From TrEMBL:
Residues 417-429 have a biased composition (Polar residues). It comes from Eudyptes sclateri. The keyword Ribonucleoprotein does not apply. It is found in: Cell membrane; Chromosome; Cytoplasm, Cytosol; Mitochondrion. Pfam families: Transglut_C, Transglut_core, Transglut_N. This is Protein-glutamine gamma-glutamyltransferase 2.
Length: 688
């Protein structure tokens, strides 16, 4: 027999991409999911393959030093039936000189970039030929993969959807901001693999790191550490919270992960400036979805940052309601992290499913700024000793807050009301733009027997709240929404739930604030020394907050913190109430003109009305949307936008992918920043 000569081959990137749901990554490279067969075609010249005469085998290798014992190299022969375990290659069909072969990886294979080599031998003669590279991802569709997710709609949302909503604002006024995850956009997959190859564990021991890349728990921990740069590693984002972002991008300006990841690569893996919690979480979500691990961004309102681990957040106020910065413990208006779906074979049973991962650098874990994966189930059950970092997240959703009022003689009075941590934990619903409340997955109903059991197990003595129907009760209310550029009223509502007259002092103070709890200058104040309350009576005291007072010091978080302090003369008791008011930005209007169809030009008309009494300078619109705009489109307006005038422009774009897409817009200017808007567009497929 003459030698078998391989002439050409076809990795069938397009067909395999469709079957493996990776087609949107482009057909320039073969991207497949583990445990699922993919087909390649070999063309031989001269004569075709003859079973029994010719031997065919493949070699797959990943990482810099592939070895079989680490699972980073495998050698396997072409057979008639698939192997039970390990890699396999099976002849599918033969047509003259062309041969179709189905290859399949085991469902626990290492993910990453592989090289594929074919070895042919006839008798004693053998040749080997490198036929290309392919990338192997986790497979949420395969029942034996540790990231298997049963529901198809959930797989579409948490693995395939390139866009989403992230919840921000305050517990009383939840807002959503659009985000372009863009995990299938050009070059993002190779950037995610580069991120794995620049992580310190890889640089320390490349073989060991690559051999552990079959485990989503390991990958999640690496990604959580690599999204921030607090360990002098090559992390993606630098965090900053002090409202000085001039030497980078303000965290509020981003509308997607693609821009951030591309900048990281372009500037030689230098950290991109700047991120805050939702940016860290969204970038981690992109990387995890890109690698095939189902993931979502979640927001916890009134999130505790408990630095000393005692599950109590102590805050100190002086008699005018100003915070004394004596405690590193903070309450964040909201805090975002990621949940990723995976089995936990490293733990006892019962902890599979959603795992919390927090890439925002807050505290070190095993010497590194990363957090998780922590089984959400373990957080709910108070199983603090399990891996990883459960006490920290348990505190974020369960800590107690105690307000101490420091009198002028230095003595401290404990407020009788403890504000509430871990509220309205939120994520985007599957397949819809509405909010799903997942608080019940983190904690049992408040006051329930189960909650008491969990706190006992976690050694958490929850302070018993004074019943609201005794003594004095204080609340801060808002009559209607607060709009940027306008004055608004807040009300301190006091209830006397006793049978006697009460005489009190009421302090009301408003200050601009950031979402991590820090406050700026005062922008409204009232001090009433003589408030008399009849038995069982209610009194409402207004405070008008003027735009001319808050406008200059409002941060890009658009928050105003209102503190009310009620001191009863007779008993000396102090009651504290705090409310964060969200200042609403104007709406960005987006009109789509034309028939939305793949590969056909569309026009978007984008506009916003300046709500302020002053002109807006240096106005800029940034537009992006996976599958729609081909990267970011930036429009700088030449003229200032006068008060009550409209900033407007038209954008031409050609959608290159069909299906439901989001066109996302960010507006920046000198006085109004981080304004977001989006529009859902259904793109019809190109007619065949």
């Amino acid at each position: 027999f003459a030698d078998l000569v391989l002439e050409t081959w076809d990795l069938q990137c397009e067909r395999n991409g469709r079957e493996h749901r990776t087609a949107e990554m482009g057909c320039q490279q073969l991207v497949v999911r583990r445990g699922q067969p993919f087909t390649i075609t070999l063309h031989f010249s001269g004569r075709g393959y003859e079973e029994g005469v010719d031997k065919l085998a493949f070699n797959v290798e990943t990482g810099p030093c592939p070895v079989e014992t680490s699972g980073t190299r495998s050698h396997f022969a072409v057979t008639d039936f698939p192997e039970e375990s390990g890699w396999s290659a099976v002849v599918q069909q033969q047509d003259g000189g062309s041969l179709s072969i189905s290859l399949c990886s085991p469902p626990n294979a290492r993910v990453g970039r592989y090289s594929l080599t074919l070895e042919t031998s006839t008798g004693y003669q053998g040749t080997s030929c490198h036929i290309g590279d392919f990338i192997l991802l986790f497979n949420a569709w395969h029942p034996e993969d540790t990231v298997f997710l049963r529901d198809e709609d959930e797989r579409c949302e948490y693995v395939l959807s390139q866009q989403g909503l992230i919840y921000q604002g305050t517990r009383d006024y939840i807002t959503s901001t659009p985000w372009n995850f863009g995990q299938f956009e050009d070059d993002i997959l190779s950037i995610c693999l580069k991120l794995l190859d620049t992580n310190p564990k890889f640089l320390r021991d490349q073989n060991r790191d690559c051999s552990r890349r079959n485990d989503p728990v390991y990958i999640g921990r690496v990604v959580s550490a690599m999204v921030n740069c607090n360990d002098e590693d090559w992390g993606v984002l630098a965090g900053r919270w002090d409202n000085h972002y001039e030497d980078g991008m303000s965290p509020m300006a981003w509308i997607g992960s693609v821009d951030i990841l591309k900048r990281w690569k372009k500037f030689g893996c230098q950290p991109v400036k700047y991120g805050q919690c939702w940016v860290f979480a969204a970038v981690a979500c992109t990387v995890m979805r890109c690698l095939g691990i189902p993931s979502r961004v979640v927001t916890n309102y009134n999130s505790a940052h408990d630095t000393n681990g005692n599950l109590v957040i102590d805050r100190y106020l002086n008699e005018t309601g100003q915070e004394d910065r004596r405690s590193r413990d903070m309450i964040w208006n909201f805090h975002c992290w990621v949940e990723s779906w995976m089995a936990r074979p490293d733990l006892a049973s019962g902890y599979d499913g959603w795992q919390a991962l927090d890439p925002t650098p807050q505290e070190k874990s095993e010497g590194v700024f990363c957090c998780g994966p922590a089984p959400v189930r373990a957080i709910k059950e108070g199983d603090l000793q399990l891996k990883y970092d459960i006490p920290f997240i348990f505190a974020e959703v369960n800590a107690d807050v105690v307000y101490w009022v420091v009198q002028h003689d230095g003595s401290q009075k404990k407020s009788t009301h403890s504000s509430v941590v871990g509220k309205n934990i939120s994520t985007k619903s599957v397949g819809r733009d509405s909010r799903e409340d997942i608080t019940h997955t983190y904690k049992y109903p408040e006051g329930s027997e189960k909650e008491r059991e969990v706190f006992a197990k976690a050694e958490h003595k929850k302070s018993s709240l004074r019943e609201e129907d005794e003594g004095l009760h204080l609340k801060i209310k808002l009559s209607e929404g607060a709009n940027n550029g306008c004055d608004f009223n807040v009300f301190a509502v006091i209830n006397n739930n006793t049978d006697t007259d009460r005489v009190c002092r009421l302090m009301l103070c408003a200050r601009t604030a950031s979402y991590n709890g820090t406050v700026g200058p005062q922008c409204g104040m009232k001090d009433l020394l003589n408030v008399t309350l009849a038995p069982r009576a209610e009194k409402s005291v207004p405070l008008c907050v003027l735009y001319e007072k808050y406008g200059e010091s409002l941060t890009q978080d658009n928050l105003i913190k209102v503190v009310a302090l009620l001191t009863e003369y007779q008993t000396g008791d102090v009651v504290v109430a705090i409310r964060d008011v969200y200042i609403q930005n104007p709406e960005i209007k987006i009109r789509i003109l034309g028939e939305p169809m793949q590969k056909r030009k569309l026009v978007a008309e984008i506009s916003l009305v300046n709500p302020l009494a002053v002109p807006l300078n240096n106005c800029m619109f940034v537009v992006e949307g996976a599958g729609l705009t081909d990267g970011q489109r930036i429009k700088e307006l030449e003229e200032p936008v006068e008060p009550k005038a409209e900033a407007k422009f038209r954008l031409d774009f050609v959608p290159h992918q069909a299906g439901l897409r989001k066109l996302m817009v960010d507006f920046e200017s000198d006085k109004l920043t981080g304004v977001k808007g989006y529009r859902n567009v259904i793109i019809a497929p190109q007619p065949k």
